[in-house]
Amino acid sequence: MTKSYHSLDEIRTHVTRIDNEILALLAERRQLSLEVAKSKIKTTKPVRDQEREQALLLRLIDEGKQHQLDANYVTQIFHTIIEDSVLFQQAYLQKLTNPDSLQPVVRVSFLGAKGSYSNLASRQYFSRKQTKLVEMSCSNFRDVVNVVETGQADYGVLPIENTSSGSINEVYDLLQHTSLSIVGEITQPIEHCLLTAVPTSLDQIDTLYSHPQPHQQCSEYLRTMGDIRQEYTSSTADAMLQVAELQLPNVAAIGNASSGELYGLTPLKTGIANQQENFTRFIVVARKAVDVTPLIPAKTTLIMSTGQKPGSLVECLLVLRNLNINMAKLESRPVIGNPWEEMFYVDVETNLKSEAMQQALEELTRLTRFIKVLGCYPSENVKPTEVDYPEE
Ligand SMILES: O=C(O)C(=O)C[C@]1(C(=O)O)C=C[C@@H](O)C=C1
């Protein structure tokens, strides 16, 4: 039965109370997932249990129906809750596995000023690690790596691939020569908008400030804008800063709406990326490698060069297949100074410490001219568990 209320304020008071209760319950559930993680250490059960998730989701969909909540709504909410629970457990277990890896305050370097996509990714990555961030903006990828190598920062966050513009070659090339290890990854949705500093209209825009990557990711929409002057910037944040300083009705920047707010910019047009689902995967690098507990899914990144013998790459890939090691990504880059030679980057969904991976490394070392492990790190990609619920 619905209660009757006298005023909007009164209704809002109740909504606020319910929202607070929801938050308190979410926090309580999160604490319980910590207890679950502790019990899994004792029983050495993996964090992810998709059978349990299936059962839980089906039960909640059924329960939701009793309250006229549709199945999609319930599923979406609980996918988010379970993702948080998995990542929270992972962060806790990783802290126990690497007790001195995370200090209460960490210095993190990234490309661009406040509000850049790399800055947003850094904040997101460290948000579950219960540590305070000191942010270090850098004007190029080389510096992001340098400041970690020289000890001025503890971590560096670098974009490595985007779902619409592909691999970020400059970052792959830096990985060839660095002594740093990959210790983490995070995938962030990228929501590009056209941002302006003053009220204006699309037909007035004749100059666009943007980093080359987002420009490429929005190429289809930008073509529809006709002949506009392109000013390339060293980061998305720099594009927003310049447009904010100009305060002109004919200039716009490509950037994220919430970052734009930091610069006093408002979206003139949202959702301008070629692909609706536009994601960037970032890697986190540090001076010291980490171990990944076997209770959570891990990724290992290798680089290797096979020389120019025909079929040598295939031989390497067969080693992985025969050991049942799933390859998540293969990228090749030229070796600077050695024309026609390629360096291969391989991401596999296997823990470096596993028997299979150790055997693979042994065999690959025999087959390659050069091989190096760039790092083993927790996979933060929590794929939602699908459920088949009966149609009405
Ligand atoms: O029950 C568990 O085993 C949990 O780890 C908790 C939980 C959840 O949040 O409900 C999270 C991850 C598992 O895949 C299943 C369920």
TrEMBL record:
It is found in: Cytoplasm. GO terms for cellular component: cytoplasm. One of its GO terms (biological process) is L-phenylalanine biosynthetic process. Its main location: cytoplasm. It catalyses: prephenate + H(+) = 3-phenylpyruvate + CO2 + H2O; chorismate = prephenate. Pathway: Amino-acid biosynthesis; L-phenylalanine biosynthesis; phenylpyruvate from prephenate: step 1/1; Metabolic intermediate biosynthesis; prephenate biosynthesis; prephenate from chorismate: step 1/1. Catalyzes the Claisen rearrangement of chorismate to prephenate and the decarboxylation/dehydration of prephenate to phenylpyruvate. This is Bifunctional chorismate mutase/prephenate dehydratase. It comes from Photobacterium halotolerans. The lineage of its organism: Bacteria, Pseudomonadati, Pseudomonadota, Gammaproteobacteria, Vibrionales.
